[in-house]
Amino acid sequence: MTDQNDLFGAPPEAPQRSPRSVQPTPPLAEDMALAAKLSPHIHLGTSTWSYPGWQGLVWAGKHSESTLSRTGLPAYSAHPLLRAVGIDRGFYRPLAASEFQRHAEQVPAGFRFTVKAPSLVTDALLRSEDGRGQQPNPLFLDPAVALQDFIAPAYEGLGQTIGALVFQISPLPGPLLARMNEAFDRLHALLLALPRPPAGVLAVEVRDAAWLTPDLVALLRDTGARYCLGLHPKLPPLAEQLPLLRALWPGPLVARWNLNRLHGAYGYGEAEKKYGEFSEMLDPDPETRAELARVIRGTAGAGQDVFVTISNKAEGSAPLSVRALAQAVIA
User: Fold this and answer.
1) How far apart are alpha carbons 3 and 214 in whole angstroms?
2) DSSP H helices in 178-237
3) Among residues 74, 154, 67, 169, which one has the least CA distance to residue 115?
4) What stretches of 219-291 adopt beta strand conformation (E)?
5) Total domains, the chain
C-alpha cells in the first residue's frame, strides 16, 4: 500500500463516426505519447464537451454549440487524453436513463462519466431563475427522490461507464449552517439508502468549509462514499483539503477543478467573460496543477481509480489544462 505521507505530499479505440458527424482533430504525437504513459486508472477530462472554441484542440472544423452538444461526444472521446467528461446539466434537470444510455453508447471502452446530482436534491433552497434562494427545499437530500431521479437512471443508462456520481451540495443558508448536525444526519441517511453503483463511486462535493470536519470523514467511511475534491474559491485551497483525503485513504480519487481562485467565490461570470472562446490558457495555475498531479500519481500508483474533470474556468481552456495536468503527472 502506498504510504499516505508519500501520496499526499495507449488510448482505447474510439467508436466509428459517419463522414457527416463532428470529426476529431488529428491527435498530436505529443498527446499520443502522454496517453501511452498514463496509467489506465487515470481518467482526466473536462466538465462538458460542447464548446465551439475548442476547434483545433478537440474538433476538426467549425461547429455550433448545439451541434456539439448533440453529436460531439464521439469526437471528444477520440482525443487520446480525454478519458472522462462531466455531465453537469443533470444538476438543472434530472436526466432519463435513455439519455444516459445514449451517451454511454458513444464512447470507447475505458471512458468514464462524472455526473452531478440534480439540484432538486442537493440544494437546501428553492431558487428563482436568477439564483436567489426563495424558500426551503422540502426535498433537500431526500433519499427517495435521489434514487428515483438520479441514481436509478444513471445506474441503468451508464452502467460500467460510471466514474463518479457527485452530490454537489450547494451553499447552505445561514439557519442550516447553524445546525450542521442536522445537515450531516440528512446526508448520512441519504447515502445509506442508496445501492452501490455498478462501477465507479458515489461522491460528495461541498461549497461550505463547515462540512470539512471529522464528522464528514466518519460519514463517508460508514457509507462507502468518497469525498470529491472541490477546487473552488468557496473552499480552502487544495493543500488544506488533503487531510480529509488522508483520513479516507485508501480509495479512488474524485476531483473537480471548477474555478481559478483569482476570480473569487462568485467569479464564474468574470471568468467566462475573460476567457472568451476557451481556446487559450490565460491564467495558468501551476501550483494547484502540481499538487493535484502528485495526488493523482500516488492514487493511481496504489491501484486506485482517478476521476478528474476540469472546467474552462480553471485556467482558461479545459483541454489545455488536461494536457498540462497529464504532463505534470508524468513528469
Assistant:
1) 21
2) 180-193, 214-223
3) 154
4) 226-231, 253-257
5) 1
Helical (H) or strand (E) element with 86: strand 84-87
The H or E element containing residue 324 is helix 318-330
Rounded to 10°, the helix 238-248/214-223 angle is: 40
For 157, the enclosing helix (H) or strand (E) is helix 152-158
The pTM of this model reads: 0.92
For 119, other C-beta atoms within 10 Å of its C-beta total 22
Q: Which domain holds residue 275?
A: 4-330
3-state secondary structure of 88: coil
Give me the numbers of helices (H) and strands (E) for the chain, helices first please: 16, 12
Domain CATH for 290: 3.20.20.410
166: burial class by Cβ within 10 Å (0-12, 13-18, 19+)? Answer: buried
CA 231, 234, 235, 238 torsion-angle sign = positive
| 324, amino acid identity | A
- Cα dihedral angle (232, 251, 115, 240), rounded to 10 degrees? -10
Neighbours of 62 (CB within 10 A): 9
Cell numbers 467508436: residue: 15
Pairing of strands 133-136, 125-127: antiparallel
Query: Grid coordinates representing 216?
Result: 464528514
CA 257 to CA 318: how far, in whole Å? 10
pLDDT in tens, the chain (331 residues): 455 455 545 444 444 444 458 999 999 999 999 999 999 999 999 999 999 999 999 999 999 999 999 999 999 999 999 999 999 888 889 999 999 999 999 999 999 999 999 999 999 999 877 777 779 999 999 999 999 999 999 999 999 999 999 999 999 999 999 999 999 999 999 999 999 999 999 999 999 999 999 999 999 999 999 999 999 999 999 999 999 999 999 999 999 999 999 999 999 999 999 999 999 999 999 999 999 999 999 999 999 999 999 999 999 999 999 999 999 999 9
The cell for 329 is 503527472
